[in-house]
Design goal:
Chitin_synth_N; 4-stranded antiparallel beta sheet; Nucleotide-diphossugar_trans; single chain; 22 strands; elongated; 11-stranded mixed beta sheet; 48% helix; alpha+beta
Length: 864
């Protein structure tokens, strides 16, 4: 398949009236998506200039928009605010629909002309106009009966796939990689020849793309990165100066934009345009519904807009959930859909999520998380999927059958929605215990359990290995700690919830065999929960026991040296473990970067020594097998191995060999062994940090459920509209100013410049607040107090040194004298404490007597 010949110097992205030219280059798509190259229209590299200097636009020699500077979020927000005012324009009257403001706006000429002609030669305004709805209602009330509507429903289209991308404050680079990945997946679904269902769509005269809708749900206008709006405006889904703050005094709850586009921006960023004489590599039209919530009300509320507002109107068969920043791989969404299509009892499924690789794997934290993700996808998810119940389908990339989650699953899920607190009363957040609130930090686990245990139904949950998605992971210790607090506390509470409510499985429609295996899985989960609870103690016992076994297995070892060396290591271990409690109860991780980073280094070093000791003991046990046979008169090697397993080294050897063996064999079976080479060591070195740092912080902050919503002042700059009766009729209309087509095209030029400007990655370190400073002082003070007391206790407890009682040269009399001398020295310190206490008490007593005498003497002399 060959690409069409195009002008190698210039490709027009414009009409005759609005001539916008982009240099054209050929850029090969990633091989995982297509072996065919794509023609895209990139923007020439723009230099990053100092504040006040603006680069020239690529369209002409006039200065570009002053909002290009990406040095701060404030510049983005302030620039966006200024663009909301329409300085000149045309006045028009918009008829309200049952009192709702719903209007269409012409898209930039360049956007419309970029579409393939076979789609634009219709009387519909789907490709020529963007539709805006100022939703002034709760998502539960966004229904046709109340006058609300969506384009796919208006056009009478059936929705097979509703793909939702939820976001908060991700930048345009993360957003572009997700949205472009989704659009590539939709192209591959619509043009696949393997599926009879999707082939039949074209044969029946219904384009496959009409059965797929993409919903972009933004959690709060004030908090979102405004560069994302430039990105969306470039593909035609958004325009500045349209959103309304209020309609007839009612606050706008969500701003809904609808447009069907064939344009995309990848994460380079470069504009991807359809080409003439499509060879199959062009993107297909994608129906996009952008929902920008006026306030930040958390992710569960975003899903309520998805399932209860959009879902009830579109009634999709499958809903796919993706977090902004997660990039679905080649045909990832198709493989999820295929799993549902071939299993009518499948209620939910998830694919494989893996960490971004490349240079990031040089960071040990990223490599450790990558190994964790990989082994979860190789061992945990397949294991659970075999039973028919995957305990967690990650919200970053998962899918549900829409009719399966209707009823109790979604009802229970939405109990965690902060915006429903007043309506639900005691059944909502306000009536929840701290345990229940933590449970909704892992809301995806609640939805999974409720779906599996749905009364009278037999829905199962599965894992789809062929479906892969790439996500970014925390790269610093504070970010990782903050992320895992929510995960660990939420999963802990949700796991207990699932075990306590396991009896509800008997009310489901699952058969006897399935329920039997659910019992086995529940027992396994209970054991896991038990060991997770005691992980802290078990890790300490493992560390202390193994290093204590080491000296006896080293020939000619200096036992005195090893005694003191291991004692120091144990004190360091316990000291830093105690410090974790102080830090966790004190300040936020972002305010204690140095302390937490140091803790990761210390526990990693201790972990290296633990690994070394374990490997040494394992190797020495096998090396000494021959001598053990002769020394203990074993008949054969089998008896020697049996004898070895009667010592602590035997189980240690078995644990190491089995763990590494299972990881390696499993990875090879799944044809994905590479993480064993580039991430295995980092994971095992950092494993104690996951227990001693992440678990301690999570449990010490069990009270932090972060339910509060943030205020918004961005909406204050948006205009409000009021309706009035139209002259000569009874219709209720709203008068508004709209940009002319000339202005729309002019502003679009500047928008494209901002959207395609490469994001300058500047690491911002959050400055501590006054409250953080106070907590930091308290943390340092308590830390110093704990450390100095520990040092004093250690010094006095070991005063006098150490004596080797196993040395044959040391007599019993010498040991007795050593013990007495040590006791005498400790007694001297104890006597010092007593005398010091006595003196301090006496001084306090004398001062009290002095006060008493003075009080009564002065009382006699006091004048009345």
């Amino acid at each position: 398949m060959s690409l069409p010949t195009v002008n190698p110097s210039v490709e027009s992205f414009a009409s005759d009236e609005t001539h916008i030219e982009f240099p054209s280059i050929m850029v090969e798509e990633e091989k995982k998506y297509s072996s065919e190259p794509h023609f895209i229209a990139p923007l020439p590299a723009l230099p990053y200039l100092k504040a006040g200097s603006f680069p020239e636009s690529p369209f002409n020699n006039t200065p570009a928009s002053p909002y290009l500077n990406r040095a701060s979020t404030f510049d983005l927000d302030s620039g966006w605010r200024r663009r909301q005012a329409i300085l000149r324009g045309e006045k028009r009257k918009v008829k309200l629909t049952k009192g709702h403001f719903i209007a269409e706006y012409r898209v930039p000429t360049a956007v419309h002309n970029a579409m393939e002609k076979k789609y634009t030669c219709t009387k519909s305004t789907e490709f020529s106009h963007m539709r805006y709805t100022a939703a002034t209602c709760d998502p539960d009330d966004f229904t046709e009966a109340n006058g609300w509507s969506l384009r796919p429903k208006m056009y009478g289209r059936e929705t097979e796939l509703l793909i939702a991308v939820t976001s908060y404050n991700e930048d345009k680079a993360l957003y572009a990689r997700t949205l472009h990945g989704v659009m590539l997946n939709i192209r591959d679904i619509c043009k696949t020849q393997k599926s009879k269902y999707w082939r039949s769509c074209a044969e029946e005269g219904t384009p496959a793309w009409t059965k797929i809708t993409v919903a972009l749900v933004v959690d709060g206008l004030d908090n979102m990165d405004k560069s994302v709006l430039d990105l969306l405006a470039t593909v035609g889904v958004y325009q500045d100066g349209i959103m309304k703050k209020k309609v007839d005094g009612k606050d706008t709850v969500a701003h809904i934009f609808e447009y069907t586009t064939q344009l995309s921006v990848d994460d380079k960023p470069q504009l991807v345009l359809p080409q003439e004489n499509d060879d199959g590599s062009n993107l297909v039209p994608v129906q996009i519904i952008l929902v920008v919530k006026a306030k930040n009300q958390k992710k569960i509320n975003s899903h309520r807009w998805l399932f209860n507002a959009l879902g009830r109107q579109l009634n999709p068969e499958i809903c796919v959930l993706i977090d902004a920043g997660t990039k679905p791989g080649y045909k990832a969404i198709y493989h999820l859909w295929e799993a549902f299509y071939n299993n009518e009892n499948l209620g939910g499924c998830a694919g494989e999520i893996y960490a971004m690789g490349g240079k990031r794997l040089l960071n040990p934290l990223v490599a450790a998380q990558n190994f964790e993700y990989k082994m979860s996808n190789i061992l945990d998810k397949p294991f659970e999927s075999s039973f028919g119940y995957v305990s967690v389908l990650p919200g970053a990339f998962s899918a549900y059958r829409y009719r399966a989650i209707q009823g109790r699953p979604l009802e229970q899920y939405f109990h965690g929605d902060h915006s429903l607190a007043d309506r639900l009363g005691e059944h909502g957040i306000n009536g929840m215990s701290i345990f229940q609130k933590n449970m909704f930090l892992a809301e995806d686990r609640i939805l999974c359990f409720e779906l599996m245990a749905k009364r009278g139904e037999k829905w199962t949950l599965g894992y789809v290995k062929d479906s892969k998605a790439e996500t970014d992971v925390p790269e610093t210790a504070p970010e990782l700690i903050g992320q895992r607090r929510r995960w660990l506390n939420g999963s802990f509470a949700a796991s207990i919830y699932a075990l306590v409510h396991f009896w509800r499985v008997y009310q489901s429609g699952h058969n006897f065999v399935r329920i039997f295996f659910f019992h086995i899985q529940a027992l396994f989960n209970a054991f896991n929960l038990f060991f997770s609870w005691f992980a802290l103690a078990n890790l300490w016992l493992t560390f202390s026991i193994i290093i204590d076994l080491l000296p006896a297995n080293i020939k000619g070892a200096n036992l005195v040296f090893f005694h003191w060396f291991h004692l120091v290591l144990k004190y360091i271990y316990l000291g830093f473990l105690a410090m974790q409690f102080i830090l966790a109860l004190g300040n936020r991780p972002k305010s204690e970067r140095v302390a937490y980073t140091a803790s990761f280094y210390v526990f990693s070093i201790l972990s290296v020594y633990l690994i070394f000791s374990s490997l040494w003991l394992t190797a020495s046990s096998f090396i000494s097998l021959e001598s053990d046979i002769a020394r203990h008169n074993y008949k054969n090697t089998l008896e020697a191995l049996k004898g070895m397993f009667e010592t602590p080294i035997g189980p240690l050897t078995a644990a190491i060999v089995s763990t590494v063996g299972i990881y390696l064999i499993g990875s090879i079976l799944y044809l994905d062994p590479w993480h064993m080479f580039h991430s295995f060591v980092q994971y095992f070195v950092l494993a104690p940090c996951f227990t001693n740092i992440l678990n301690v912080y999570a449990f010490c902050n069990l009270h932090d459920v972060s339910w509060g919503t943030k205020g918004s002042d961005t909406v204050d700059i948006l205009p409000s509209v009021k309706s009035k009766a139209s002259l000569g009729s009874n219709e209720v209309v709203v008068e508004e100013a709209t940009n002319t087509q000339e202005d729309i095209d002019h502003f679009f030029k500047e928008t494209v410049v901002r959207a395609l400007a490469k994001v300058e990655e500047v690491q911002t370190i959050e400055k501590p607040t006054m409250e953080d400073d106070n907590k930091t002082f308290r943390t340092h003070l308590v830390g110093a107090w704990l450390i100095t007391n520990a040092l004093l206790a250690l010094a006095i407890g070991n005063i006098g040194g150490w004596i080797n009682v196993n040395d044959p040269k040391i007599t019993a009399e010498q040991i007795h004298k050593f013990t007495i001398a040590g006791n005498d020295r400790r007694n001297m310190y104890f006597a010092f404490l007593l005398y010091a206490t006595f003196i301090l008490s006496m001084v306090r007593f004398l001062g009290s007597v002095f006060y008493w005498v003075r009080h009564y003497l002065f009382a006699l002399c006091r004048k009345n």
